[in-house]
Amino acid sequence: MVDIREVPEADIDRALELAYLVFNDRPEKEGRERHHALLARCGRIGAYDGDTLVGFMAAHDFRLSVPGADLPCPGLTFVSVAPTHRRRGVLTALMAEQLRRATAAGSPLAALWASEAAIYGRFGYGGATTGVTVQIDSTRPLPLRIAPDRRPLRLIAPDEAQGVIGAFHEAARAARAGRPSRSPERWSREWLAEQAEDDEELSPPRIIVLGDPGEPIAGYVLYRTKPEDDSGPVRTPGLVRVEELEADTPAVAAALWECLAALDLTGRVTAWCRPADDPLLHFAADRDQVRVTAQFPALWLRLVDVRAALTRRSWAAPVELVLELTDVRLPANAGRFRLKAGPGGAAYEPARAAPDLALDVRELAACYLGGTRVVELVAAGLVAEHTPGAAAELDAALRTDLLPHTSDEF
Ligand SMILES: CC(=O)SCCNC(=O)CCNC(=O)[C@H](O)C(C)(C)COP(=O)(O)OP(=O)(O)OC[C@H]1O[C@@H](n2cnc3c(N)ncnc32)[C@H](O)[C@@H]1OP(=O)(O)O
């Protein structure tokens, strides 16, 4: 029988050993120190078999941008169960404790990035944002259907970058739902770290901003490069890996993409997680040159307190519906509720009337940020529509101008 309890700071190294074991990882000293410092700042839950740590989960103290608000949202990470204790309910017990803590702390949401998409639905998590991988063949110029912004481009040193792009990133976070807050530590230890965590061949981060001197910037790109490899039988051209690109206008985005595609001694640009509505996919003149090579659920979201989550976001259109909600992990969310929402605010109260829609909390989580349409889940047989048109009505109210998106993997 395992005991679920707080992992004291003195056990962080044991938690890391367990994580490296299950993730088949062996970081260098610097990486270990970075992980140690990260876990010291996180909430930590352990599963102990006697004195042995056999399960672990950490939670960042994040806020998440949702339509019209920024809500507390623990970000789960380092979820690890020892190979000797698999499939005996250890993760299930850690998740129950995490949900208990999030409820006690008044966090309406919780979020994570999944190592495998099959794991977290059973705990009420739904894929709430979509990422697409974009590959540009940059062995030739990038033709565009719009005129790029011709204001100057400027390189920024990584140690100055947070001061220059931090506020821009924060504004972009508010404009698109689904983005976790980024602490100064995460900026410096992850996004602006000299060494990319997943690939030691990549260059330090390069940051290019666009804007007139003395004026606020109008956009930025953060990227890393890898030199061409001609050691094998097939020459691999130099790579530009885009970590983040944010722009005020399509013309600014066009200038930044054009600049990336024109970097000397490189022949491919890869952006591993862009929004599905990235303007590049429309203004690129040759979509054979700019390809979407993958699409995946990125941020998984849990509505911990459904009422708080629904009443604290903004709504695009009026809606009044009775929802029949199931939630086996958090029964306080289950039951029949009337949602009455609109641009003026929202109410969500217990109801007796027949339901218009019946769904599980994981489906509501998938739709909450406006990234998945309820009508699609009706078509997939996952949501029951008892009143014709109810799903479309809820979609119109949940809708956001920009699709929710984040590439902030944690
Ligand atoms: C947010 C993050 O950190 S993502 C990282 C997740 N961690 C990893 O991938 C590291 C390697 N894997 C592990 O450490 C473990 O196998 C874990 C954490 C994925 C699962 O831990 P376990 O203690 O074995 O899970 P537990 O026994 O509670 O299983 C709960 C249910 O999930 C299912 N499940 C567990 N892992 C998986 C999986 N990888 N794929 C599909 N289903 C799974 C179980 O079959 C079980 O199903 P049931 O409720 O129908 O019986």
Automatic annotation (TrEMBL):
Which HAMAP family does the record cross-reference, listed alphabetically? Eis (MF_01812)
Give binding positions for acetyl-CoA.
Answer: V79, S80, V81, R87, R88, G89, V90, L91, T92, S115, E116
Question: In terms of domain of life, where is this protein from?
Answer: Bacteria
Query: Where does the N-acetyltransferase domain lie?
Result: 2-149
What name appears for this protein in its UniProt entry?
A: GNAT family N-acetyltransferase
Q: Which NCBIfam families match?
A: PRK01346.1-4
Q: Does the keyword Transferase apply?
A: yes
| Basic and acidic residues: bias regions | 182-192
Give the region (Disordered) as residue ranges. Answer: 175-199
Entry keyword set: Acyltransferase, Transferase
- SUBUNIT field: Homohexamer; trimer of dimers.
User: What InterPro entries has UniProt attached to this entry?
Assistant: Acetyltransf_17, Acetyltransferase_Eis, Acyl_CoA_acyltransferase, Eis_dom, GNAT_dom, NAcTrfase_Eis, SCP2_sterol-bd_dom_sf
Q: Where is the active site?
A: Y120, F410
